[in-house]
Amino acid sequence: MAAPLHLPCIHPSTHLQRPTILTPNKNPLLQTPQNTLKSTPTLQHAFLSFHHHPSLQSYSTILELCASHKSLSQGQQIHAHILKSSPLHDIDENSVFLSTKLLFMYGKCGSLHDAHKMFDGMSQRTIFTWNALIGAYASNAEESWRSLELYSEMRLSGTHPDACTFASALKACGVHGDLGFGLEMHGLAIKGGYVSFDFVVNSLIAMYARCGELGCAWRLFKGAREREDVVLWNTIISGCSQSGRYIEALGLFREMQSAGVRMNSYTVVGVLQACAELSLPMLGREVHAALVKSGRGFEMFESNALVVMYAKSNRMVNAVRVFEDMEEKDNVSWNSVLSGYVQSGSHAKAVEFFHRMIGSDRKPDSVSIISVASASGRSGNLLSGREIHAYAIKRELDFELEVGNTLIDMYTKCKRVAHAKQVFQRMPIRDSISWTTMIAGYAQNSCYCDAIDAFREVQRVGVKVDSMMIGSVLLACSGLTCLPYLKQIHAYMFKHSLLDRVLGNSIIDVYGDCGEVEYAIRAFENIENKDIVCWTSMISCYVHNGLQKEALELFYDMKQVITEFDEVILVTILTAIANLSLLKKGKEIHGFLIRKGFTIDGTTGGALVDMYSRWEEVENVRLKMKERGLVKNPACSWIEVGNKLHSFVARDRSHPNSKEIYMKLNQIMERLEKEEGYVGDTKFVLHNVSEEEKLKMLHGHSERLAIAFGLIGTSEGTPIRITKNLRVCGDCHRFTQLVSKLFERVIIVRDANRFHHFKGGSCSCGGFW
C-alpha cells in the first residue's frame, strides 16, 4: 500500500508516512535509504542537495517543498528528472506514489491542467490520487464544481472516500453553494463514521455557513467535542464573515475571547474581514494593537487583511502605513492599497500608486488594471486611461473579460464612445456585463439610437437581460422621447418579470419625459407599496409636463401615507409652487420643513429663493441662508476642447483665453439680437438689481461662456458637449436653441436634471426640464 499524501485537508496531527520497502533492483535511484533532505531548511538548499541523494523519499520531500512554496518551475524540473531517471509507466506502487506526489504538487501550484494530465495518465489510482485532484479543484473557486464531478466519478470507480475526501468535497460544496450535495455528503459522513474527525466537522460547519445555513453550522459548532480548539472557532467565525453575517462573526469572536481561546492568524483575518465590511476601524485597531503587543511579527496575509480593513474604513493613512511597514508584499498588498485609493475617491493617488507598482518587483495584474482604469473613468482622466489600456495590451491582459468591461466603462465615462466600441468589438468573449456597460455608455453619452440598436442585438444573440441593462435602455428611450419603443420595452419587462420597484419608478420618469402623463399614471397606479421615490417620480412627471396643480394635490395625498421626506421631493414640490406663484402654499411648505426639523441646506435654500418671487422675500431667504452659513451651490459648466477639460463659473474671467471668449460671446449676442430678435428674459435673474445689471448677469452665465469657447476651439460642424452642475435657466435654454440654429451646431448639455440635445433651434426636452 502506497504512503498517504500530506494533503491540505489533512488534520495537523496526521503525519506523512514513509513508503513501503522497495523491491530490490527495480531502479538504483530508488535504493538510497538515507533521506538527507530532512534537515534542509529551504527549497533552494533542498533543490541543490537533491542531486547528491536522489531517492524515492528525496523525490517525495522535494516535491512537497515545491508544493508548499508553490514553485511550479522547480517542480517541473523534478518531474523531468524523474522521467529521465525512472519512467513512471511501470505499474508498481512506487510509480503510483510518485505520480500522485507530482499530481499533488501541480495542484498546489495552481496548474490544474498538468495535475489532471497526470491523473489521466495513471492506469492505477489510489484514494490519495483521487484526494489530491479533488483537493486541487476544491481550492480553485472557479473550478470547484469539478471536485464534485470527480467525487462522483470516484464513487462509480469503486474507490471509497475517506475523511480527507469529505473535507475537500465539502469545501467545494461551500464555494459552489451546492447545499443539496453538501447535505448528501453530511449523511454519508455520518453513515461512514467520519464525523468523529474534527476537521470533517469543521468542513461541515464551513460548508453550511457558506451556503447560508448558519443554523445548521451553529448546531454542529455547539455539539463539537473540542470547544477549546481555535480551528473550530475560526471555522464558524470565517463562515459567518463569508456569508455576510459580520455582526454574528464579531459576537463569536467576543465569545471566543471570553472562553479563553487564544486567537491565531486565521482568527485575525476573519475578524478583520468583518470589521472591514461593517466599517468598524476602532475594533480593527484593537486587533491590530493585540498583534503588535504579541511581538511575534505579522504574517503577510495578516498585514494584507489590515490594509483592506483600513482602506474599506476610509483610513488610507493607516492602510498605507501598514503597507509600508511590510517586509514582503504580494499583489494582494499592492492591489488593496490601490483599491482603497479608488474607493476613497483619491483617483490621482491611485494612478500615482499604479506607476509605483510598475517600478516595483510586483507587476500589476488584471485586478490592478481594473482598479486604476476605474479611477481614470471616474475622474474623467482620458490620458491616464489610455496609458493603462496600453499597459494592459503590453501585458496581454486586455482580452480578459473583466478588464475589457472596465476599459469600456472607462472610455464611456471619458466621453470616448468610439474607443469603448473598439474595445467591445475586440473582446473574444462578452457577457451580460459587457453589453450592459456598452449600452449604458451609449445612453449616458446621448448615443440613444446606438443604445437601442445594441439592445436589439442583445435580444438577437440571446444574452441574459437584467434590470441594469433595462435601466440603460430606458434612459435611451427618455433621450429620444421614443414612445413606441418605450411601450415595447415596458411590455418586454412584463413578459420577462423584470418590472421591479426601481424599474417601475424609471418607467414613470420616462413616460413623463415623453410627455405621456396618462401612461405614467397607469404605471404609478400598478405599483404596490409605493415608496418615496415612486411618489417623487409621479410628482416630477406632473411638474415637468406643466401640471403643477396635480403635482401639488399628489404631494398632499402622499403626506397621508409617507411620513419621511427627502430633499428631492421637497425641491420638486417647491418648483411646482414657484411655477404656480403660490406664495402662501410655499410658505406652508417652508413651515412644514421647519416643523419637521429639516435642515435647510444649499439646494433646498436655493429652491426657496427660486420660489419667493417678491424681492423682499428673496432677500429675507438669502439673509437667513447667510446667517446659517448656507451657500447655494455656484453654477459651473465644463467643456472638453483639445483633450483638456475647461471649467467656467458665472462671469468667469480666469480662463487664459478669457478675452477671446467674451469677444466671441459679444459677436453671438449681436447675431442673435439682429437675426432672431433675441432679448434676455430677466425674470430668471433673482437678484434685486437694475435691469441692465440683470442682462449683464445673464450674459455671463457659465454655460454661455462654455458655448463661446466651444465655438472658438472646435472645428465647424462638430458637436459641442457641455456639462453643468445645476439646472439650465430658461433664458440660457432659449439662447442655446438659437445658437444651435444660427451656427448649425449640435449642442449637447447635461445639466442637473437631464440631457438636452439642441439642434436646428429645438431641444430634445420639448420644453420640459
From TrEMBL:
GO terms for molecular function: RNA binding; zinc ion binding. Residues 677-769 form the DYW domain. Keywords: Repeat. It comes from the Eukaryota. It comes from Acorus calamus. InterPro entries: DYW_dom, E2_motif, E_motif, PPR_At4g14850-like_plant, PPR_rpt, TPR-like_helical_dom_sf. The gene is PCMP-H83. Coiled coil: none annotated. This is Pentatricopeptide repeat-containing protein. NCBIfam families: PPR. PROSITE patterns: PPR. Gene3D superfamilies: Tetratricopeptide repeat domain. PPR repeats lie at residues 126-161, 229-263, 330-364, 431-465, 531-561. One of its GO terms (biological process) is RNA modification.
